[in-house]
Amino acid sequence: MSSTKTIGIIGGGQLGQMMAISAIYMGHKVITLDPTADCPSSRVSEVIVAPYDDVDALRQLSDRCDVLTYEFENVDADGLDAVIKDGQLPQGTDLLRISQNRIFEKDFLSNKAQVRVAPYKVVTSSLDLEDIDLSKKYVLKTATGGYDGHGQKVITSADDLEEANALANSAECVLEEFVNFDLEISVIVSGNGKDVTVFPVQENIHRNNILSKTIVPARISDSLAEKAKAMAVKIAEQLNLSGTLCVEMFATADDIIVNEIAPRPHNSGHYSIEACDFSQFDTHILGVLGAPLPAIHLHTSAVMLNVLGQHVEVAERYVTENPSAHLHMYGKLEAKHNRKMGHVTLFSDEPDNVVEFGKGIDF
Ligand code: AMP
């Protein structure tokens, strides 16, 4: 029997493309589903061109593939349930439902996985904001549909309530206490339905709510790093995880607080392509195929810089001046402002000396 599988990926952006590249190196065939014929994954795979929630297209993908996976969490879970065959989607659709809704997500993290999250309450209308203690600071987030800081309102005083009330009346929300963190970190963990493997802790620097720079290993104590990894493993085990998951967290002076999970490879894990012996995409493919997972070894300290639309020329010049920097371009044709066009990974243990593209220029 051939060990070559056909893997169907819902979503043909950069994450789908990098998953496909890993799968191809392992000898598999890939078909992606994406609304855009010229999407990043089209450089390396056949594309079924259709909207993500097109049930006929999902069925076609399911009929032609041994295993299905997705590159992002906003996939139509019901549509997928209607077409998948037994065992064809090892990640399952429950994980999608949890990560699509902050109310389910917080409940899962705090009650099932029993990891620490910021104190929160569910808000169904502005009435739920009437009695909040304004000596504390909060973040109000819509339960669904928010991304990169959209659908959020920080509440620091009564002046913020008008906007917060409007947000609370427009959609179900969660109100979280504001965490005075030292660093934002994330941990990538992969599972094969039985065992898990975990990556080093990543330190993430955002600008305008978009990831700008990832530093590995994160500059936190060994004990906090071990704690963060143990929390990611606990979450993965509670999910019987298949494939790769990213756990985003806050590191305070003496503790780790989980913010959210993304059930897929993550921008903050891209450094693993060069800096680890197996990347987050390799372990994703191994995991969804139920194959044994390797322990992850970080060869050297690394820094990843995102290349947004406005940074393309600067980044291309940078790598000609720094030949050991690894440039990845995703093959997107239009370099729009703030659109993720590529990334650069460098080996460096002086992360402060690695300056983000466009720092102090764009924003
Ligand atoms: P999120 O959409 O939950 O990833 O939030 C976007 C960004 O808002 C995070 O990367 C943090 O910088 C900030 N943020 C979110 N929740 C909190 C919180 N409870 N306390 C402090 N900052 C937060």
TrEMBL record:
EC number: 6.3.4.18
Binding residues for ATP: 102, 141, 146-152, 176-179, 184, 206, 259-260
SUPFAM superfamilies with a match to the protein in the record: Glutathione synthetase ATP-binding domain-like, PreATP-grasp domain, Rudiment single hybrid motif
Record keyword Ribonucleoprotein present: no
The protein's annotated pathway: Purine metabolism; IMP biosynthesis via de novo pathway; 5-amino-1-(5-phospho-D-ribosyl)imidazole-4-carboxylate from 5-amino-1-(5-phospho-D-ribosyl)imidazole (N5-CAIR route): step 1/2
InterPro entries named in the record: ATP-grasp, ATP-grasp_carboxylate-amine, ATP_grasp_subdomain_1, PreATP-grasp_dom_sf, PurK, PurK_C, PurT/PurK_preATP-grasp, Rudment_hybrid_motif
Single annotated GO MF: 5-(carboxyamino)imidazole ribonucleotide synthase activity
Cofactor dependence: Mn(2+); Mg(2+)
Matching HAMAP family: PurK
Function: Catalyzes the ATP-dependent conversion of 5-aminoimidazole ribonucleotide (AIR) and HCO(3)- to N5-carboxyaminoimidazole ribonucleotide (N5-CAIR).
PANTHER family: PHOSPHORIBOSYLAMINOIMIDAZOLE CARBOXYLASE, PURINE BIOSYNTHESIS PROTEIN 6/7, PUR6/7
Protein name in the entry: N5-carboxyaminoimidazole ribonucleotide synthase
Organism (species): Streptococcus raffinosi
